[in-house]
Structure to design on (183 residues):
């Protein structure tokens, strides 16, 4: 009788453990896949917003041509009180809001949303150096525009020790990734 009672107690516990392990494996696979995915935009993400990236890159290239004395421009993206994206040019001794039209503001908002949702990295600044435009996100990911189609150089060659690899998306566009990614 004692043996039967012990078995009756063990059977429900075993069934509960089996069911919970099956449920855990079913739900953990998508979570693990999401966690293991690289922190970058996919090519199709770029293609779906190609117009926005090109519009902003062209605007910034023209803007830097108007300021030829600046070797590098660091531009922060923020939202104003009305919820529209704005650019703030931060340089040594200069912290200026750049006047942008509604189309550029809308494009910046879409790019920021794309980075946050699809690349899973916060997007908050753009670096323009020697006509190359880098849309920079966290985890050292960047989407780079090359005016002549060549591989973009390091953003800051004097101080940047880390090595990066560039994956070409199309003629003028590259993903910039750390050379050694764990995923």
């Amino acid at each position: 009788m004692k043996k039967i009672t012990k078995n009756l107690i063990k059977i429900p516990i075993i069934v509960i453990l089996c069911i919970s392990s099956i449920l855990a494996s079913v739900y953990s696979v998508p979570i693990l896949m999401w966690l293991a995915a690289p922190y970058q935009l996919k090519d199709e993400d770029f293609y779906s917003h190609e117009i926005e990236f090109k519009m902003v890159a062209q605007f910034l290239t023209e803007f830097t041509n108007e300021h030829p004395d600046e070797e590098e421009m660091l531009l922060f993206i923020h939202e104003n009180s009305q919820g529209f994206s704005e650019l703030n040019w931060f340089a040594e001794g200069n912290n200026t809001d750049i006047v942008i039209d509604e189309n550029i503001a809308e494009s910046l908002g879409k790019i920021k949303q794309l980075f946050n949702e699809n690349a899973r990295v916060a997007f908050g600044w753009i670096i323009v150096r020697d006509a190359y435009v880098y849309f920079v996100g966290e985890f050292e990911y960047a989407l780079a525009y090359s005016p002549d189609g060549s591989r973009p150089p390091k953003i800051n060659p004097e101080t940047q020790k880390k090595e990066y690899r560039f994956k070409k998306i199309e003629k003028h566009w590259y993903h910039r990734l750390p050379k050694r990614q764990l995923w």
In short: Helices lie at 2-36, 43-48, 50-65, 102-119.
